[in-house]
Fold this protein.
Amino acid sequence: MQNPFYYGGVVYDEHFCDRTTEIETIKNDVEAGMNLLIYAPRRFGKTSLVMKALGELEKKEGFHTVFVDLMPITDKREFIDAYFHAIAASLRGPAEKIVAFFKQVAKIRPNVTVSFDAAGNPRYALSFSSRDIQATLDEVLETPLLYARSGKRIVVVFDEFQQIVQLGLEAKLRSVVQRHGSEVSYLFMGSKQSLMREIFTDKNRAFYKSVKHLPLGPIGEEEWRAYIRDGFERTGKNVDDEVIAAILSVSAGFPYYTQQLAYEIWEMTPKNADMEIFAKALRLVLEREEDLFRQEWERLTLTQRKALKLIIAAEGKEIYAAHHLEAFSITSSTLQKAVKALLKKDIIDETAGTYRPQDPLFGYWIAHQGNS
Ligand SMILES: Nc1ncnc2c1ncn2[C@@H]1O[C@H](COP(=O)(O)OP(=O)(O)OP(=O)(O)O)[C@@H](O)[C@H]1O
Ligand SMILES: [Mg+2]
């Protein structure tokens, strides 16, 4: 019997839990030609969510999705290559027709080439000299609009968008996005929250107030409960309520860890998942993440470590209260400085005056250091 849980890459179909409201919002906004911003911590389910919503739009409304991950890209030429290929691939037609579209409709001047990998998938490319980078960039950035005007509905997704700054393309892209209005919908995703926040909320930056922000929270407890229970039951196993509660208490609904814990518990369970199995699975998951957590911890200053411990002990609330400061021998101003640094490093988040470690398992690990 196959494990019904999954963690790692993008999740589809039976591995996908909830997010119904977010899916509806994305679909409606993209159909209306809006631009959207989605940022959340790493492994929070951004790509899975967007793929699911856009997959539905492709099937039902004939949308074409151009998906570009900026993470591996190191310069403008690579950006052009990746973007051009993504646009071409989204056209979904025979290679000759796609090449013809670029020549006739988009009037792309550089030579369009297409090659095929072993599985028969096409790889589209442009050949141009370094002298022509700027002009080619302009032409490629314009194609989604021409594409839309030729009667196709198109949505462009930039994953790990914060990279745009280092590529020196922030202002340029902003003007393109603005010019394309509601004819092309753009979706920006990113996991470096502090950077994304700067790009989109700094008055002096190109993207200030230009897109609708879709906040992505954890998946709800009720949805997880039903999902985990169903995963066990349809594979002929049972899971105690207590175990589900324990998973969600450690993972705080964070998708990756919830799936990872459920996956490992299922693996260790012959028939009935109980708290003993839960404890074993949690130890295993912590062991796996240990190196990463240790590195993360060592990158922090002693004061930042102390601030993090205080935040966890205080459960993030009223962290400047005198008894907390006293218990951790830290002054209010030192704590304030450390908190600012932790927010900037994306170690913690703040909502309505409550502070939380972005990574709930890292928080758990800190709270239990020295007890293992
Ligand atoms: N809707 C969901 N239902 C169930 N599990 C999910 C869901 N979304 C995410 N996950 C879990 O989280 C993992 C990471 O998902 P995904 O790759 O979509 O996140 P991401 O935010 O794009 O991550 P990254 O920052 O690494 O790109 C998945 O492998 C899966 O275990
Ligand atoms: Mg992703």
Remarks:
- Residues 46-47, 159 surround magnesium ion (ligand 2) (CB under 6 Å).
- The chain has a mean pLDDT of 94.
- The first strand starts at residue 36 and ends at 39.
